[in-house]
Amino acid sequence: MKTTYKAEAGHWYSKEGEPKYTIIGANGKERNTTLRDAKKEGYVPSVTTVMNLIAKPFLENWKIDQALKSALSLKKFKNESDNAFLVRCKIDSRKIGIDAAKRGTVIHADIEKGFTENIKTKPYLVVKEWLDKNYPDEEWIAEGSFCAEEGYGGKIDLYSKTGIFVDFKTKDNLEEKTPAKLVFDEYGMQLSAYAQGCGFTNPERVSIFIDREDTNVISCYVWDKETHKKHLGMFDSILSYWKLCKNYDPTTGAV
């Protein structure tokens, strides 16, 4: 496994584990890497790209809630058509998700700086304190990328050489929620896929949630080791489906 430390920008990796988020197009300009490019170059999809095929009912319900809130809060313009108003509501509702994603990116970056540059940001210090208490004397690797022999790749928020895999998520109002209410099977699947990609068969998997508004507040969930086999089986099934759906198997080059 080759470890790199480039900024996340796309969803493809080379067979050497290098992120290949963008590519230089025929016009000489940089653009996002496509499935067609991946087939040509032999790139593998990321764990999250594969898992995008999974239905996410809680996320979809959240999106519906935001759209309804926008419809209730926005005033319809005089002579504005229903379709135009619906489009405006959709655009307005997406702003919340975009803002949340931006805040999450900043928090992830602050934690990464702590592990890679020893910059003691607030979210890093809170996370590191919990890790030191529960997993003392570990050597941590932040934002390491890999390519699995099964034909997928990824970039891991944090993992140790002993096989502890940590994923960071940002949420709102953490103090009102218990760790068990925050996790979904897809989070376990993601961590299990990372572990398999790095050659670990019995990993420790940890989901750490950081409050977007108050990064002093975190909630940590350690997955039962017994669920690793289940989650890995679920991911591998989706990976097989992805290969069939996209008519592309990176392990064989078949299209």
Helix count equals: 8
Structural class: alpha+beta
What is the H/E string?
EEEHEHHHHEEEHHEEH
Domain count: 1
| Residues in helix, % | 40-55%
Looking at the structure, what is the overall shape?
Answer: globular
Low-confidence stretches: 1-9
**Main β-sheet description:** 5 strands, mixed
N/C terminus separation: 25 Å
Please provide a written account of the structure.
By secondary structure, the chain is an alpha+beta fold. It has one domain. Helix content is 45%, strand content 19%. The protein is built from eight helices and nine strands. The chain has a five-stranded mixed beta sheet, with helices on both faces. The protein has a two-stranded antiparallel sheet with strand order 1-4. A hairpin with a 3-residue loop joins strand 6 and strand 7. It is globular and about 65 Å long.
Secondary structure layout:
Blueprint (H helix, E strand, L loop, with lengths): L11 E2 L8 E3 L5 E3 L2 H7 L2 E2 L1 H5 L5 H17 L8 H36 L4 H13 L5 E9 L3 E9 L3 E8 L7 H4 L2 H13 L6 E8 L6 E5 L4 H20 L9
Parallel strand pairs: 7-8
Antiparallel strand pairs: 1-4, 2-3, 5-6, 6-7, 8-9
Short summary:
This protein has 255 residues and is an alpha+beta fold. It contains eight helices and nine strands. Helix 4 crosses helix 5.
Task: Give short descriptive properties of this protein.
globular; alpha+beta; two-stranded antiparallel sheet; 5-stranded mixed beta sheet; 9 strands; 255 residues
